[in-house]
Amino acid sequence: MRDDDFRHSDNIDDRRDSSGLGGGGGFGFPMRGGLGIGTILVLGLVGYAFGIDPRILIGGAEILTGGGSAPSYQTDSRPSGKTGAPSDEMGSMISGVLGEIDDRWSEIFRASGQSYSGPRIVLFRNATNGGRCGMAQSAMGPFYCPPDRQIFLDTSFFKQVETRFHGCSGNACRFTAAYIIAHEAGHHIQNLLGILPKVTRLQQQAGSKAEANALQVKVELQADCLSGVWVNREERKRPNFLEAGDIDAALTTASAIGDDTLQRKATGHVVPDSFTHGSAAQRKRWFMTGYQQGTVQACNTFAADSL
């Protein structure tokens, strides 16, 4: 990925020098619904599959709409870090990707007569205060906190993609990082369009956990598709920004973090009714749908006859 001419966003809170609480305390899963240890182990892996804060998906969905009371979490009382575009290589790349994401989505919203306000990215190490979404920890993977409109990201996750998931290698990892950030920004788009609150209400009314999970899969696949829309629009703006192997690396990552792949690694078998992000094939399909068609309308996973 060529990003030397990207516009760098200042909408970043860099806490990497002030966070780092270690693994000894902090985050606890809300134990509503009697989650067993086997379920938690699987969810721990699924946390790496980047998406909405997993605590919201595990019994805390009312946070999205502001109703009910949120689960309690230990929070980090340390002050926020530096604000603005970071100067180090990793931080600068993230700042550039966010700037381009905001610019392309501003153009898309403007074309439909709507205004756009981008998300804020919080960079941290190990753990930090996740605002109204509770404690943010590295093991959760990147996530979007809807009530605060913030993306939480421990940059070591990108190394995990390369080493744990084998999703990329070399320079292609830069584009894979951009794909991950664009996926989280996709959740922000869903939030702005009112999709997340509507899905939350439907999940609260669902007759079974499998039905609620099926709705969450559609949310995640739509975010994958919206990330593809950004890549399409960015390529139109900068025809040479993609390099050989970039798309393949993103698809490899999408495959590596599919629910079926993660469950097979964790337990040796696959339980489709427990999917929350979609299978490897589904994630690849919907990213490519967004990338090839380049429209929000193409990403209506809720109306699709088949995912």
Describe this structure in words.
The chain has 307 residues and is an alpha/beta fold. It has 11 helices and 8 strands. It has helices at 37-46, 54-57, 62-65, 89-111, 156-163, 172-192, 195-205, 209-237, 246-256, 259-267, 280-293; strands at 12-14, 51-52, 82-83, 120-124, 127-129, 135-137, 143-145, 150-154. Strands 2-7-8-4-1-3 form a 6-stranded mixed β-sheet. A hairpin with a 5-residue loop joins strand 5 and strand 6 (135-137). Helix 4 crosses helix 6 (172-192), helix 7 packs antiparallel against helix 8 and helix 8 runs parallel beside helix 11 (280-293). The longest helix is centred in the C-terminal third of the chain and has 29 residues, at 209-237. It is globular. It starts with 11 loop residues before the first strand and ends in a 14-residue tail after the last helix. The model is unreliable at 21-50 and 52-79 (pLDDT under 50).
- The total of beta strands comes to 8
Mean pLDDT: 77
Q: Helix/strand/pairing class, anyone? A: alpha/beta
Shape: globular
The helix tally amounts to 11
Order of helices and strands: EHEHHEHEEEEEHHHHHHH
Over all CA atoms, what is the radius of gyration?
18 Å
- Compute the separation of the termini in Å: 29 Å
Q: What percentage of residues falls in helices of 4 or more residues?
A: 40-55%
Strand order in the largest sheet:
2-7-8-4-1-3
Q: Which strand-content bin applies to the residues?
A: 5-15%
Largest sheet report? 6 strands, mixed
Query: What are the low-pLDDT stretches, counting only 5+ consecutive residues below 50?
Result: 21-50, 52-79
